[in-house]
Structure formats: C-alpha cells, structure tokens
Amino acid sequence: MKKIGLILMFILVMTFIVACDNDDQTDDKNYTKINRNIDGLLLEEQYRSFLFFWETSNSDPDSPGYGMARDRYPGAEGVASVASVGYALAAIPIGVENGWITEEEGRERALGTLETLLEMDRYEGFYVHFVSMRTTERVWDSEVSVIDTALLVTGALFAGEYFGGVIEEKANEIYDGINWPWYINQVTKRYFMGYDPDTRVHFGAWDGFAEQLMLYVLGAGSSEYPTGDASYKVFKNDARNRFGAYFSEQDPARNVDPYYFTFGGQLFTHQYSHAYIDFRQIEDGDGTNWHENAALATLASYNFALDVSNQYRSLHGSSWGLSAGDGPNGYKAYGSPPANHYENDGTVTPYAALASVIHLEDEAIRAAYHYKTFPNLWGEYGFKASYNLGLMSGYEDPALVGKVPYYSPDVIGIDKGITMLMIENYRSDFIWDVFMNIEAIERGLDVLGFEEA
Hints:
Elements lengths: L1 H12 L6 E3 L10 E3 L4 H17 L15 E2 L5 E3 H16 L5 H17 L10 E3 L13 H18 L1 H12 L17 E3 L4 E3 L9 H9 L8 H10 L3 E4 L9 E5 L21 E2 L6 H18 L16 E2 L6 E2 L16 H5 L6 H11 L6 E2 L2 E2 L3 E2 L17 E2 L3 E2 H16 L1 H6 L3 H9 L3 E2 L1
Antiparallel strand pairs: 1-2, 3-17, 4-5, 6-7, 8-9, 10-18, 11-12, 13-14, 15-16
C-alpha cells in the first residue's frame, strides 16, 4: 500500500486537481476518461471510500470468501453484504483509472471476486443479503434479496464492461443466471420485497417509487429471463400515488415543484439506481425524467433542513442529508417530506449530501467541509455513517435524552459505495459512460420505452 499512501499525501497537498484529458483506453473498449476540476476534500473522501473496499474486503485468494466486502467497519466483523460486494467491484475500475491500484491488481481482484460469486449458493440466481466474509455462508438468518442482488450485479456488469474478456464473461454469467420473473408476483406484476429461504415464501412488494428503478431495467434487459415492461408500467401507476410538491412552513421561496417521492423520504432512494444509469438525457414513455425528479427530491431535502434548523443542531444549510443510517436509537431510515411517513430526530448521514453533489454542488461541498470540523465524524475511511448533535434550546425529545451528541463509530459499505460512485460521476461521468454502453442495459431501457429527451 506504499503507492496509495504517496497518492494520499499528494491529495492532501493539492486543493484542486487540474482538469485534463486522459487518452488511455481500457482493453477492447472505445472509452476516453476525462477529469473535471474537483474540490480536494471530495477527492480525499472518494479515495478513502475506495480504500475501504480495497483494504477491508477479503483479499486472501485461498479463502472461499475472496472478494467479499464488509457490510460495515469496524463493527459487524466477519459479515459481508452482497450490495457492498457490488460496490467493491465498481471500486476497482475507479481505482485503476485514478492510479490508486495497477490494472493487474484490479483484474486479479475483480476476477477472483466474480469466481467467488459464481461458487456461492444462489436461489434462482439471487443472493442472500448478508454472508460470512470467510465462507460465504448465510448469516443473521438474512433474506434472499432482490435489491441487494441488483446492487451486486450492477457493480459486476460495470467491472465486466470496463475490463472486458473473461471478467466480462463471468459478470454476464452471473447476470444471465438471475431468474427475474421468479421474484415477481405474477398476479400483481410487482417485484416482491424479499424471499425467506427457510419458509420458501416471498414477502412484501415494491409498490411505489423507491431505489428499485434498476430492477426494471435489469429484468427487461435479460436475454435469459426477460420480464418485459409490465412491472415498470405497474410501478409507474403505483408511483402516481406518491407525487407531490414540497411546501415550506418557513419560506414560500423554498417550495419545490411536484415530484415522485418515496414512502419515507430518504435520499438514498434517489441515488442508488442513478449512480449507474444515466437518466440525464432520457425519459420514459410518460415523459418522466428520473434525473430531474431526483434533483427536485434533493432540493426538497435540503430545504427541509433549512426549515427545521431552529429545532435541530445538526440540520441547517451546511449540514443536511436525511437518509438511512445509524442513529442514537439504532439504524433507521431518516427522511423528510413529502412522504407517506418520514422519521427525523436530527440525525444526519453525510453520504446523502455528498452523493448529491451532482445536483447541489455548492451545498454538498459546503457540507463536506462542515462535517470535517468534527473529529469524531472522520476516520481512516473518510466520513463515518452519521451524527446527531441534539436539539436547540427550548425543544425536547425524550428519545434523545442522554444519547446526544451522537457519532456513529462505523463506516457502512453501501454509504461509502454510493459516495464513491457519485463523486466519480461528478468529476468525470465515468460510471455513467461505461455502464450505459452495456448491451443489456441498452436493451432494458429500450424495452421499457426510454428515449432521448
């Protein structure tokens, strides 16, 4: 890791990276990466996020769990999340392109991880959410997860498209083995939320807008188990029940135009699919542009932080980002209106603001510098999961008594992953450019009726 240490020293010295063109192309791929000017703290956060995946994943090639990525660190030792594995695979091309690892190192880790995944237990191609990092066996009686499998396979396909050759073949083998219709309720045409391998029963339903946009694209693009467009059409009909504006109780200038919102109003729901699929210049048959929708949701979340800044010490113009994360009373899905139900106790998840840099650039950078002023919120892998400074004078919340100020002791894999990818898109469009060149993704978007706006 001596090379990486030298790079970090360089990052700390430089505040900005000079914009330049990089004419190096990946094997057999017609792709040229660009770099835009980027704030030095954002680059350091991205680099440290990359380090989380590179250093804490199982790197023992003789282990059955080679390539498994931690769910969190330092907590939950020995437990991997398959979603985190997907981000770990996506981290590898980012590391190669930025010179943080060599291409040879990247190929070795990517290939070994995919080989591990192909040897793991699967259910109609789907993966268990949480597994042992050492053995890949199921832990915590976790479910077989459709969304976490999707987060895994998007990272695998991205790495496959980038490297080509045998890595691409193995990524496609994983994708082609997923029986997407098996996870769809054939009566309602909605994706189930989970599958219990003990009872052998599916449960729940994706019955409105959330982070699952990628499911419809992946399912429709499959050459082995295609789903068609029925589930997406049902989803759009469901989503209309959650379409509305944000109305500020403090300042009408903060009102936000109507958009598709989620049940709990968390920001990650407007980020996960968008990190890979470039919705900026495409819209579906109804004229919906999901990138613009995410921008409105981000602005609403930011304006809500302004509106409640008189109540919560952690929420204001330099500290915002309500999403799923650790809190004083456990892991919760924090959110903001409009929503069917949202939970907020003043807990801020830094990743939510940083991954929104593609929408609110200045506000995200300002938040990053504010977060950096708290030593307990920063560590070897960048910003930790969350913090809560409590209530302003005159306000009370019995649930927070004796529990604030609170700083999560951990970094969480999916937080680091979405931050890393969105910062890369912000600086170079790299993830979008590579992922949108995948044949299955092009096919899936076409089946669903997406066209250039």
